[in-house]
Amino acid sequence: MTSTLKVDNIAHSGGTTGMTIDSSGSVTMADTPTTTSRPYFYAYGNGTQSWSGTAAYATLALSGVYENSGSHYNASTYKFTCPRDGVYFFWYSFTNSTNSSTGPQGYIVYTPSGGSSSYRASAIQYADYYNTVGGNAVITCAANATVEVKLINLNNASFTIDNTRCTFGGYLIG
Q1: DSSP assignment, residue 144?
Q2: Cα separation values, 144 from 9, 81, 86, 91, Å
Q3: Four-point Cα dihedral 78, 107, 112, 87, nearest 10
Q4: Which of 41, 58, 114, 129 is in Cβ range 3.0-4.6 Å of 99 for a Cys bridge?
Q5: How far apart are CA 69 and CA 42, in angstroms?
Q6: Same domain, 13 and 66
Q7: Whole-model pTM above 0.85?
Q8: Number of domains composing the chain
Q9: Are residues 74 and 116 in the same domain?
Q10: What residues make up the domain containing 6?
């Protein structure tokens, strides 16, 4: 015997809706956004970027966008702005097209609104050119914080990044 349970919503204390199950079977919890309202993005680059001279950080310029749910990734500043507090997953990859002996090194950089930046998920690429490296991180983010990928030319090494082989993405976990 098969039975069907039809639930329109379930209330928790305080009289507010705690969970809703719609006619298609999608479940929405009161404290959790629906899957479609979760921001995510996936960016890629065009052309190349070069570093030389004194070691300096520069943002990885990824102006192409495959996905950008909520339009929180800015393809001009190359930064993702967190639309709400939450735990996010981010990843990146980059490809050095120069045979350099010391670098480049990349980081995911988290900067809370009005706060100090923190560098996470370090990846370094030595010697072999056209070798792709990357990293990922789970970060508890505050609303309006920004996240970007920065590279540095260690030991003042000169190198060129092939941006067509670079990616940066992320999404809200919850």
Answers
A1: T
A2: 32, 6, 11, 19
A3: 100
A4: 129
A5: 9
A6: no
A7: no
A8: 2
A9: yes
A10: 1-32
